[in-house]
Amino acid sequence: KDLFGRADLGEGMTNLVTTISDPLVIAFDGKWGTGKTTFLKMWAGELRKLEIPVIFFDAFENDYADDAFAVLVREIVALTEANKTPAEGSFDEIKESSIKLGSRLLRVTAKVGAKATIKIITAGTVNNSDVKKAIEEVIDEAGEVADDYMRSFLTDISDQKNIVAEFRKTLEALPNQLAPKNGEEKQKPLVFIIDELDRCKPIFALQILERIKHFMSVPNVHFVLGVHMEQLKRSVQFAYGAKIEATTYLQKFINLTIANSDTEWSEHSRRIVKYIRYLSDSLNLPSTEENRLTMEFLQRVALKNVFSLRTLEHIFSNIAISTAFAAERESHPPPLIVGLCILKVEKPGLFLKAKEGQLRYEDIAGFFDFRDWSEDEESDEQTWQRDIWETVLADEVPERLKDYVKGRSGYRRRKDAVRSLANNVVDRFKPNK
């Protein structure tokens, strides 16, 4: 399903990775919340339909690892295992070559860093002489091991190069081994999608780029990075200092950048409308006139305040929990529930005032766009949401709304209703962001 009207972009990226055999590292660049993950997952699905082998990897969920190489090859090996039949053994080569190279890299990290790590952990905290002596012996031994390893590493250069070459050779053969045996002459690539790279620990994010460049840059293996480039540049500066030219540094590792941004406001506007419709349908809300008008209210607020797609996801998560939790016997006008969910995500300061019973109509009138409705929109349908909020929050209920208040006996207490909903329904459970 082409939810955001990006089928052309997906087709273009598919043509790119299937036409070019030279190794590519593509940055799919966009700010947080602009739909990068959703698009990349949908694109991965389209690639699989074309029987192109795909790995989708969330870097942020894996940045606890000591070395990026280990987690990257783990994903590659997992893909081969999933595609291997009992009679096949050719995939074992990639596993064995990965173990050889990975163990070398981990030994450098572990052995050379052991002495410094122990010093950092124990600096100034040990007084007992016996313990101190034992630690000093460990440090000395670690230092000797590190010295021996570095001596071996420097004197056995040909062996190191052979191990790297062996791994690259087996990786280069992998796309052909994974390709379906349907008689097609054109070789299909292996596409490795790495998402959330900009959210990783800076050192881990850069290590991923370096491992790709030095060990995985082989024909027909392409990497696509879901990333906000400005944030990744900050990671470079964090690791190497503010004076480094981050853009130049990243150009060493990334071949091209595809912008995941809207060139026109109208394009983003269409995506907001489509996504609200999609998320609303996913909630399976009753098909009532109240719910329809409330979704229009949410759409209006989202368009006016330029909500990101991720923001909409968080708002709908809160709506789903709140509507499920609210007792059926209670009367909860949808505009109040949805409006409070919006405030909780986008205006936490105003939501806190709602919880404390201090929220005023003037606080939300501008944000909810109530003041900007034109005379053409002054119908009972369009003003229904506004009237509810004004009724429960205004210091003095306008004359035109007094009959409305009488008809809503459950909301005679006005501000108490908002405070009750905020505390007992909308903020009872807190979905993770």
Question: What does this protein look like?
Answer:
There is one protein chain. With 433 residues, the protein is of the alpha/beta class. It has 2 domains: 199 residues, 3-Layer(aba) Sandwich (Rossmann fold); 162 residues, no CATH class. Helix content is 61%, strand content 6%. The chain is built from 18 helices and 5 strands. A 5-stranded parallel beta sheet has the order 2-3-4-1-5, sandwiched between helices. α7 links the parallel β3 and β4. It is elongated and about 90 Å long.
Main features:
alpha/beta; Rossmann fold; five-stranded parallel sheet; 61% helix
Anisotropy-based shape: elongated
The total number of structural domains is: 2
Gyration radius from CA atoms, angstroms: 29 Å
- The CATH architecture of the largest domain is 3-Layer(aba) Sandwich
Gap between N and C termini: 25 Å
Are there runs of 5+ residues with pLDDT below 50, and where?
A: 110-127, 408-413
CATH class of the largest domain: Alpha Beta
Mean pLDDT: 78
The ordered H/E elements are HEHEHHHHEHEHHEHHHHHHHHH
What is the CATH third-level topology name of the largest domain? Rossmann fold
State the total count of DSSP E strands.
Answer: 5
